[in-house]
Structure formats: C-alpha cells, structure tokens
Amino acid sequence: MLRSKKKKNQKLLTKPRQLITVSDAKSMISEQFKTVRTNIMFAMPKQGLKTILVTSSIPGEGKSTNAANLSVVFAQEGKRVLLVDADMRKPMLHNIFNIINLFGLSSILERKCQYDEVLQETSVEGLFIITSGPIPSNPAELLLSTTMDRFLEEVNQKFDLIIFDGPPLLPVADAQILSNKCDGSLLIVSAGVVEKEEVRKAKTLLTASKANIIGVVLNKYRMPKSQYYYQ
Q1: pLDDT tens-digit series, residues 62-111
Q2: In angstroms, rounded to a whole number, what is the distance separating the alpha carbons of residues 137 and 142?
Q3: Which residue from 109, 162, 188, 192 could staple onto 63, CB 3.0 to 4.6 Å apart?
Q4: Average pLDDT over residues 8-25
Q5: In this structure, are residues 88 and 110 in contact, taking their beta carbons and an 8 Å threshold?
Q6: Among residues 75, 162, 155, which one has the least CA distance to residue 115?
Q7: Higher-scoring residue by pLDDT: 227, 206
Q8: Are 63 and 202 in contact (CB under 8 A)?
Q9: Range 48-65 average pLDDT
Q10: CA–CA separation, 42 vs 28, rounded Å?
Q11: For residue 29, what pLDDT band results from cuts at 50, 70 and 90?
Q12: CA distances from residue 121 to 7, 76, 77, 81, 99 in whole angstroms, order as listed
C-alpha cells in the first residue's frame, strides 16, 4: 500500500515555476541568491549549517519562493539538498515545483509513511523535496513530537543540507518550534509589505526560542537602475 502512495506522490512536471535560478541562472536576481548562499556558508564556518529554517514575520513576504531558489543554488553547487515544506497550514512548495502533494511531512509525523516513501526528486540535479502532505489538525504538536526529532536525525545522515520552508512567525507557533530545532534561521523581510514593528516582534520570537538567526533577506526591494550592476 505504501509503495502505491510513493508512486502517486512522485508524479513530477519537468518545468518548475517561479524559480528564477532555474529559468535564468545568470540573472542579477540569481546572482543575489548565490550571494546569500555564500553568506550562509560563512555564517558558521567551523560548526557548519546542516538544517536551515526559512521564515517570515507575516504571510505574503515570499519565504517559499526564497526557500525554493536557495535550495536550487545550493544544489547547483553540488550539494545533496532536501527541501521540506514545513508549512502544514498553507503549503506552497508543491505549486512552485508543480508536484503532487498527496503525502508528505504530515504523513511522516503522523507515522503513516517513512521519509523515503514521500521523497520526490526535482528537475534540478541533487535537489529533493518533501511536500507538506495533507493539512493536519495539530501542526505545532507534530513539530514538537519525538517523531520530528527522529526524522531530523535520519535526513541529517542522508543529505548535505536540509532547508525547511516554515510558516510565518506572528500568526502561529510552528516556526518558533522549528527555529529551535534547526541550526540556523533565515528571516525574509518583504519591502512594502511588512511593518517594522512586525519584524521586531518576529525577531523577539526567534530570540525567545533560542534560534540562531543567521541573517535577513530583504525581498521585493526596487533598486535604482544606476545600481543594478554589481549590487
């Protein structure tokens, strides 16, 4: 029965959407993602970062698109990367990659599947994805479970880097829980969308959960044309 689940869940369209790092790898935006990749690598040069949470203060700041593109540039560097949609309330990654979301993280945490039964390859070499799975009634409790800890231990042994696309911080507690379990947290801040006070509150929540904040990505910022080159 689980084998049939795996086959159904691995139907993959070949052209991902919203991935500038795939469609135009030499664009200025793609280069900026590579710069973020480099900064992440230098954030903890001695310890190394194995698990990274990508989150935001509020919905609509572009965290999922950023998580997806960052995963691509890390895979393009030759790493074996796992991208996990840990937003089990309003998942987006299956839409970005045009893949089926019948089973995923919630299926693992509810002990209905093993991780390798819901693991999906993408059209990017070295990049694998686990979608959110069916929306559960208790996402926060699932993330707090020992099953989540075992999942992290298992994928840590199989991949060079695991990137979690988590929910926004202010509406729910899920991202706080994830930030405590991950080696580093990356906060996406969308210009013209989020208020400064909301960003301050998000930082306070991350600090309270003892998160290692490795940086902030300013998203949707319009640069003057005179500054396009080498910026």
Answers
A1: 999 999 999 999 999 999 999 999 999 999 999 999 999 999 999 999 99
A2: 9
A3: 188
A4: 62
A5: no
A6: 155
A7: 206
A8: no
A9: 94
A10: 21
A11: confident
A12: 12, 14, 17, 10, 10
What are the structure tokens assigned to 130, written together?
A: 């686990």
What Rg value do the Cα atoms of the chain yield, rounded?
17
DSSP states of the chain as a string?
A: -HHHHHHHHT-B-SS-SS-HHHH-TTSHHHHHHHHHHHHHHHHSTTT---EEEEEESSTTS-HHHHHHHHHHHHHHTT--EEEEE---SS--HHHHTTB--SSSHHHHHTTSS-HHHH-EE-SSTTEEEE---SPPS-HHHHHHSHHHHHHHHHHHHH-SEEEEEPPPTTT-SHHHHHHHHSSEEEEEEETTTS-HHHHHHHHHHHHHTT--EEEEEEESPPPPGGG-TT-
Residue type, 165: D
Does residue 229 carry a pLDDT above 80?
Answer: no
Identity of residue 216: V
- Residue 47: predicted pLDDT: 66
- Residue 59 contacts by C-beta under 8 Å, 6 or more apart in sequence? 90, 168, 171
Q: Using CA atoms, how far apart are residues 131 and 94, in angstroms rounded to an integer?
A: 6
pLDDT at residue 183 tops 90: yes
pTM of the complete model: 0.88
Please state, in angstroms and rounded to a whole number, the distance separating the CA atoms of residues 117 and 221. 39
User: Which amino acid, one-letter code, is at 1?
Assistant: M
